[in-house]
Design a protein that fits this description.
Layout: H1 2-20, H2 23-54, H3 59-81, H4 91-99, H5 109-133, H6 151-171, H7 177-191, H8 200-206, H9 220-245, H10 248-252, E1 256-257, E2 263-264
Antiparallel strand pairs: 1-2
Length: 265
């Protein structure tokens, strides 16, 4: 028994090493990195370009640019990567897929960690590229001179946006997810108090963008806390519905699984 206890950790290390050397892991992580970078670049560059073209500081022009950036930045990478890496480009989506049991066997916890790391790096690269394209320094801490808004409202707004986004992914048919997600977030850029960040990786990076679509770093804990609360809420709701339904609908119907994406009925 002692020898088995010694061998088991070594076996785990060996399996993790083999997984890290897997070409598919690196390829899918690179896809998540590029997809997230494109998303954040689109969100940040849109309002900057709009303001430059308008030659004013009109917030309506910037908000229109942000909305277009959200819609395009979400639809294209999700559509392109859905059948390859899953097109998550959001740590909350990766965790939701894993924790609700909708992930294929290939999405191990090691891959989840690698995905989230890639998404965070991609978000910062997208921020740096957007600022570089506008002739700004790569990163700049965003600090507002105005008093911080009501943290409670901000928390609830991000919780709603994140939960709504994840529920859309859960209930929609696979082919409709890119359109549904893009339209939901694009609409809530206008309707929500916070502008619908709903992405912890993007929220973190936007705290270092110092742009119209950025975020005061002092509010990062409130925004990210709300987003994670939305994730927890959706997971609890999913478990409750499965319990009430007796898992019949989930277990008895066939599922089609993308390579590393979500299982969809």
């Amino acid at each position: 028994q002692r020898s088995l206890r010694c061998i088991y950790p070594l076996r785990l290390i060996y399996q993790a090493t083999i997984s890290m050397l897997s070409k598919s892991l690196w390829a899918t992580c690179l896809a998540e990195l590029v997809g997230t970078a494109f998303l954040i670049f689109s969100i940040l560059a849109g309002p900057l370009t709009g303001l430059n073209l308008d030659n004013t500081s009109n917030p309506a022009i910037a908000l229109i640019g942000t909305t277009i950036g959200h819609i395009v930045g979400l639809y294209l990478p999700i559509k392109a990567l859905m059948n390859f890496s899953g097109g998550h480009i959001n740590p909350n989506v990766t965790l939701m897929v894993k924790l609700t049991g909708r992930a294929p066997s290939e999405l191990t916890w090691l891959r989840v960690v690698c995905y989230i790391t890639s998404q965070i790096i991609g978000a910062f690269l997208g921020t740096m590229f957007a600022r570089y394209m506008m002739g700004l320094v790569a990163l700049e801490i965003d600090r507002s001179d105005e008093p911080v808004s009501d943290d409670g409202r901000m928390f609830v707004s991000e919780m709603y946006c994140s939960a709504g986004l994840l529920i859309m992914i859960l209930v929609m048919a696979k082919d409709d997810i890119p359109t549904g997600v893009a339209l939901f977030v694009g609409a809530n850029v206008w309707f929500s108090t916070t502008g619908c960040f709903a992405n912890p990786a993007g929220t973190l990076a936007r705290g270092f963008s110092n742009t119209f679509a950025g975020l005061d770093v002092a509010q990062l804990p409130v925004y990210i806390g709300g987003e994670l609360a939305g994730l927890v809420l959706v997971i609890i709701l999913d478990k409750a519905l499965k319990f009430l339904d007796g898992d019949n609908a989930v277990e008895d119907e066939p599922r089609v699984t993308t390579e590393f994406g979500m299982q969809k009925v």
